[in-house]
Structure of Dipeptidyl peptidase 3:
Amino acid sequence: MAAPQIFQLSVASSFNRLDPEQKLYAHHMSRAAWSGTRIIFRQVSPEANSIFDFIIALYFCCNGDWDRLANQANLDVNDLQLFLDYAAIFLSNLGNYYGSGDQKFVPSISREKLAKLVACASSSVVDLWEQIRDPMFQKPPLSLGSPSELTQSMYYLGYEDGGPSFRENAALASKIMQELSILPENTRLEKARPSAETEVLSIVQASVTEKISHYGDVNNTTGNTKIIRVVTGDHKVELAQINAHLDKALEYVSNSSQYEMIRNLQESFTTGNLSAYKSYQTIWVRDKAPKIESVFGFVEPYRDPLGIRCEFEAIVGIPDSSETQILKELAKEADRFVCKLPWVTGNSGDRGPFEKSYFEAPDFSSIQSLAYCSSIIFPGINLPNYNDIRQNVGYKNIIFSNRMLAETYRARGLYMVSKPEQEIFKQHRPHAYYIWVVLHEILGHGTGSFLAETVPGNFNFDPFSPPINPFTGNPVKTWYKPGQTWTGVFEDISTTVDECRAELVGAYLFDDPDILAIFGYTEQGDVKPDDLVYNLYLQLATDGLRGLENYDPVTKEWTQAHSQAHYSIFRHLLRDSKDLYTVICDPQAGALTVKVNRSQIVPEGKPSLGRMLLRLHIYRCTADIGSCREFYEDLSSVDSEALTWREIVVAKKDPPAIYSQANTFIHDDTVELREYEPTARGVIQSWAERDIH
């Protein structure tokens, strides 16, 4: 496990501009956010909560004086640092699996040396050590995924493998949940076998309220009985704590909409009913440009091997006014940029069957995150993920400026760039990356129109004269049936295809001079538009190759949606464009270099991106899972040449990036902000002072 690269997510400049009531609102919302920490631990691994308790107990045992504890244990300072690095990486990833990639990591310090540290601590630390020392160091599991000997998932409890039984039970549960109108995002499945003849399948739902409802019994051909039930009360302690902090935040809301928004959120956490959660998200979308922005709930399905159940996350942030102004300018002009996408057939009014007639600009803001409780701290997000809300109400785009700042110092994949170009690549990368992320969020996730039978017999297109599929020249044969969603239809590939399509939109539009001018890049500037475009195509290559870090050659599975997307884009460009890229690989020297032919970007690169983008877009809009899976899984297959590349990529893997986040405290009715140094010790201290029960 490599030592981490640590960045401080500073928020003081924005926080200090808030008035006293806004600071109180931000404080209580942040406390609510951090109260969801144990939910995420519980969704990651059986041992994660106890490892957290062990780290925090060890901190308080020595009052944060790690050197004194190491001296007592006669532990070398380098060995101490190995443990502190592990603790900081664990805390920042909210578990013992990397948030990006889902691979398990174990301490670099030996079990015996760590035991010496424990021996000098309290009895409670020793008790925790006894609980976690084996699973903390144990491999397998190697990663998160379908239950098997090598992978594990806390979304599916009681399953030893991802074979037919697991798939059958998951399909049965999905059918029952559709009948009962239970959405899957805040659920888990649990299988128990109280006797040889009886199996209990529980659909477990997150809520404060506890209840067990018997759905029915199913008898199979062997005469065994399967008892189906719905159980509420998962994560009840944490959800109750969140609601208590939200109660306090209600005293300081800025308007009635925020009050109603939080009340709906509390109802969803109390009952587990996601209809209330969707009401919360609808109001959230309409709450434009709030002084304090927040995101709560079971949001992203990246870690569910079936792609439908979601990890909890909670974010609180404060707008960065100067950066937000640029984003609002882009949002204002975005409708005309939509017309340049490859499936749009008109400039206004009727843009064809696969795009909305008008792109309504979303609320687009740049914020400094105050509390980002998630296994991955993304540089930008686009929410909500519910298609009906997005199509009928809208969505929000958020860029996290203090997180984005870290990209200025992270030249990821730099070794793949030829040495004469490395310095200029480092200089231009943050500029190009920022614009790419922004376009990904606003136009990547914000465009498109799904063909659907919205309710039985009611279509949003003419089913007797369906739109023409641009690839076959024939009328489309598939669309979304009543109640179907994007994630439900596309299941395990839904998130990676969605991210791939969004990345393609950003890359395809990137060279537009009007877009670049909004961000201040013109021919008169120090950084020229052509330089940024060239840098982007280098990033497409280096990110594509770096994506192989998150491919597991043992299970032959991708463990991160964005990585699979980046590799697929690069593979498509290699196959579909002429002389755009050259990959030079020297396995003996452990060298991997990629070069871009600048003269081929316009004639070859952009058209190739457009062809891939159009395919994914049409598959997505028409619910054509069969064609999409065939196309995408072929692109993301890893052959022997790519495995050779992977060996070099893994050997030269960038150190994990982790983040030191602030806390707030109330003293004499005044909210104080405390930031921590970007070191492993600072990260551990910040978590110890969050007072997570």
The first strand starts at residue 5 and ends at 8. The chain is about 45% helix and 15% strand.
